[in-house]
Design brief:
Helix 4 packs antiparallel against helix 5. The strands form twelve sheets. Strands 1, 2, 4, 5, 6, 7, 8, 33, 34, 48, 49, 50, 51 and 52 form a 14-stranded mixed beta sheet that branches. Strands 14-24-16-17-18-19-23 form a seven-stranded antiparallel beta sheet, with no helix packed on it. It is 9% helix and 35% strand. A hairpin with a 4-residue loop joins strand 17 and strand 18. The chain starts with 6 loop residues before the first helix and ends with a strand.
Amino acid sequence: MQLADDVDLATALAAPEVLVDGVLEFDWHRDGQYSHPYSDLSWLATRVIVDMGPITGDIPKQVNTLTGFSSGELTVTLGGSRFGDPDLDAAWNEALAQFGLSADQLFSQYWTASPLYGFRIPGTPVRYSRVVETASGDRVLRQFTGRVREPNFSRRERQVELVGSDVTELSGEVTFPLWSRVDSGPGGAGPDLSSGLGTWRPISSSWTVEEALRQGGAPTGPLARSDAVAYWTCNGSFLPSVGHISNLNQVAFQSTHILPYTLAQPWQEGKFGICPKLNPTADDLGDLNNHTITNGGNASASRVVLVPNAGTGASSVTVGFAAWVYSNGSPSGYLSYPSLDLKMGIEDFQHPPPPSIVGSFGTTSGASIYWRVCQNGTAWVQVKEDAQQSSSRTWSWSKQTPLPTGWHYVAIHITFNDGSLSAQMWVDEVATSITAGSNPGGGYRYFDDNAGAGSRTNILRFRPNIPAQHVQVYAGPAATTSYRVGQGQPPTREGRPLARVYGTLSELLYIPDVNRADAWETLQQIADGELAVIHTDEFGTLHYLAHSAMRNHTNADFDDAVTISDDRLMEMVVQPSLDVHRNTVSISYGVRQAVRDIVYRANHPWDHYAYGGQTASRVVEVRDTVAVRCNGLPRILDGSQPSGGASIMVGSVAAQAWGGTPGSPTALSNPLAGSGWSVGAVCLEDPRKFDLQIYSPDQALVLAYTGGNQSAVFVAGTRYSDLVTKRVTYSNASDVAANGQRLIELPDHPWRQVEATAVAVANSLLADTVNPVPIVENVQIHADPRLQLRDIVKLTSEDGITGALYAQIIGIRREDSATGGSVDSLTLRIVRTPGEWILGDPDLSILGSTTILGDG
């Protein structure tokens, strides 16, 4: 509730006569200032309707449960009827028209005399507030924040109707990486991370919610810098938001989310959303292959980062690291474990001989930059030339003073000059000294003269074993790649967050294919899978709540509830609740995992060919593929299955009888192609595609089996396994015994993937349906601009049919007009009746014992 502690406001709203004015403002300059002379058009508004909710979802209508989606809509009438008298209204509109200010002319894109001529009306930010006069001055309470859609004109009435929406801010497209867990149960040997496969543990759906918000334009935490090459939010997984989960042109990474089962509860509340807990068993025993104890993952940079090669006169480059980290404040333990570790390779090893590049965390080999922030906030950074370099050198810097207990934003920059290296550090926006350790003279030297020749993306290894969030690496020219004050803070609107996430319920074995999808629709799909709630508020902030979070109320919620007494209550309708009683839930979940397999087979022998002396390049699309194995290995002749780690296999013939036009089946009887030809799969930034490149030095080449009239192109990789759907039934045994079984069946859902999620969803739903509660609609009251969705109100109704009761607001319709005054219509869900707690159950519990049936 807005201004809940304002006594004067409460007194004013409780009075028999309440003076409420509306303030309607437009940000024509779209700069957040609302400073145009015609920004305030309150004087022209004759009717304003704000509709927030009610919250509804895809659960069958007969079940009154807290799930669904609600966005706000503003409908404004400008001009037309202001006095309720036809003659007075006509005179008022005529007077405005004489000054060129009639509503239809003011908003017409063709009326050049309009002061708004030239402004684009659709998409303009709009806000609406109510002003209440109190004994100590006016109180301004926001009722809506959003953007305008197309105006509708009425020439006869000289009026314009504008409709505004508050979800148009969430306008970006969303693309998720294709990722799936490798299945290996707790206590097992675990996957072989060195082979490129990943972890056992699922990710939290929080990561997909936060990522949809980030890409959609309403991030909950700091944004990645525009020059970022890698960025991890750590909000429920260690998948990168900037960067690739595949190592372009080399080998598919599946070890992008390493989270062992040794932590019973791996996530905690962080600075912005959830973050990894301290992993006390993690240490530095060598490498990410130590998957039984370490968190982390692999990635590659979103673009190539090259630093100056000493002595070449190249311009200086700065590579920066920044992260939110939690310090335990311990006064000792410099370089102690656990810690946040990030290592980035800075050599190009596309060309032979390959340098050792990143190396393991526990060794000093590998050409890399290595950042470490320890659990007490001490820090260290190292730059290492490749071990194969003659007289390989190492630079290092450290900050050995612990940070106070709490969250801190730490940034460390390394600047590579032609003849030297330097480091800078910031803590909580303040430049902080960092002490040089090893500091050999001269600049960084690449292993050989072909630095960058292979256009290799830099490999990163990431281990967040302490609470950490919003970790990023960025790079660019030293002259422009500086620390930016405020880069650790999320964007806001009028000082308020763009979105807030209050927990999620699901764990994900795989990420469903979301490619350039609408952000709002994507959020709805995720929420629908776990019966979550999404709604917007008066300031345009989007709220995502787990199902249980909507119905977990404290005594304070009831103690502070606004009382709607009989003298304020104008009308109400109570919907019956008996027909929504359910005591059994049938629910499904779908299981998938990552498996190595052939991810592409050509359909026709003539699908892929090349002319002599030319390289043919064809972009191929794949489905349900986590990563294509793109390591450019040479062909394997006449094979049918990949072996020996090969990424691609072909059988080939030289088809010299083409006559320049491929397509003749007789060409397949020609002899096997000669030497020198090659075929390779090149990964692209879009993981749903790869580039198949074919080269033949002197003769036409078709990728087909000799004499078989059959294509011989097989590309290996990692794909999703087939979906296995399991359905289970959960019942409240005591209620079934007393009343017989009353079943609700939930349909299959791609975002519900583990049994634990199904259990949580079913139990949370049964907590609402075993003791169903009534919906109270059309509760008309004199305007109370303090009220918000999810507030608890108390209905006294001494003279009515209910007695005193408490209810939660799940819908608000506000109407202000020049003739009808200000009225609010509420949709309520009863949460407490006299002497009875309907929703007093523990979180995610149900009443009575539970019977589980099915194959889960």
